[in-house]
Structure formats: C-alpha cells, structure tokens
Specification:
By secondary structure, the chain is mainly alpha-helical. It is built from four helices and two strands, in the order αααββα. A two-stranded antiparallel sheet has the order 1-2.
Length: 100
C-alpha cells in the first residue's frame, strides 16, 4: 500500500490565490479550472508523483511519464471547498481517473 502521508504544502502566495478562488460562489470544477491556480496544479502533480513514486494511488500500477492526472479523493462536485485540500489530492493512472 502506498504511503500518502506527506501532502503538499502551499506557499503563502499559493494559499492566497487558492483562498481567492475558494471564496467565489463557483462549482468545484470551476474552482479547479481557474487560471489563477494553473502553476499550483503543476506543482501538486510533481509533488504527488514524487511522493507516490510514480504509482497510481488507487490500483498502484506504474504511471506513464506525462500521464498523471490529479485525482480528488472526495469529488469536486460533492465537496467544492476541498478542491485544493492537500490530503484530498493524489495522482492516478488514466484508467482509474476515467469516468466509469
């Protein structure tokens, strides 16, 4: 089983940007796709890939380089306030991140 106990920590500037996005009355998906957090999402992906040693958080299969979508453990639609919650973010393989 993967050890997922080292979530990303945000810089003060990143947290300010996230707080601004979360203060909006937008949906979880809209909050996640906000352009103000594009660089943050890139850093989340890099951090999660390193912490997970390039393994999918769900099936534990090896993730191919350049194919590591960020997955929300608690879905964006159900918990829009957790969209950027570090303990809610992992990377997964395309198969596990695809709609069923």
């Amino acid at each position: 089983m993967l050890d997922l106990n080292n979530p990303i920590t945000y810089t003060a500037a990143e947290q300010t940007a996230i707080d601004t996005v979360l203060a909006s009355k937008r949906t979880g998906k809209e909050r996640w796709t906000d352009n103000r957090t594009k660089g943050i999402k890139n850093r989340i992906s890099i951090h999660c890939l390193a912490e997970q040693q390039c393994y999918c958080a769900f099936c534990e299969g090896l993730i191919n380089e350049g194919d590591a979508p960020i997955e929300h453990i608690s879905p964006k639609g159900r918990t829009p306030d957790f969209v950027y919650e570090p303990k809610n973010l992992v990377v997964s393989c395309t198969r596990c991140n695809s709609p069923k």
